[in-house]
């Protein structure tokens, strides 16, 4: 079982879209997948066809160790993967966890109990470097960073890269920056091409080969409670995410690089 955080401390950059579509793409090519929704907005939950308002148990109960993942997860037949859902209750976890032991290791412990049930766990992180995100980073083997190729995207990236390095050094020696995923890409925009070139110069093979185009079907799909890959499998966005799922499977089959993060 390989565990990946989809993280970027900015909101609206495509984290949730990446999480649900990569999950659906991986499921389509036969992988067993669990999404852990760590964002109190619950967008990955709703976007996987699971009603966040009707959940008896959520990731909140798992973080507080009052439920296991086996008890709290939902299987979404339409999308072909499992979801450990979230809703607004999760916003309180930050405060509830503060005084507790192993407060940054709660998710890691819970995931160990399901390690033979999944090939991939994808953790959709909130847009902050909070205790919730830290639980994600402490559980994961790698971080996937979706980003738009805009000028300010590069600026925020160094904070995230530093956080990953710190967590790697102090809390989770397994953690690696797996890669940067260019999303909402429009090749006609010169600035996007330039930023994309800069990314490749600075981050080399940490930039995924697959590029996710800006595609209206990916944006429409959440209102139907589905990932774009399921909502319109023939759309350009869906096909790109299937390619990305294949690229991820290839990456995890390669040996880990000697130099971390
Ligand atoms: P985050 O989880 O980082 O806040 P989202 O995945 O929710 O970001 O994406 C923000 C918005 O952009 C959403 O409305 C989503 O539907 C839209 N979006 C994301 N990726 C694409 C894309 N490739 N093409 C078009 N719209 C996209
Ligand atoms: Mg989101």
Automatic annotation (TrEMBL):
UniProt cross-references to Pfam families, sorted A to Z: AAA_31
Top-level taxon of origin: Bacteria
Gene3D superfamilies: P-loop containing nucleotide triphosphate hydrolases
Protein name: Chromosome partitioning protein
Organism: Piscinibacter gummiphilus
Taxonomic lineage of the native organism: Bacteria, Pseudomonadati, Pseudomonadota, Betaproteobacteria, Burkholderiales
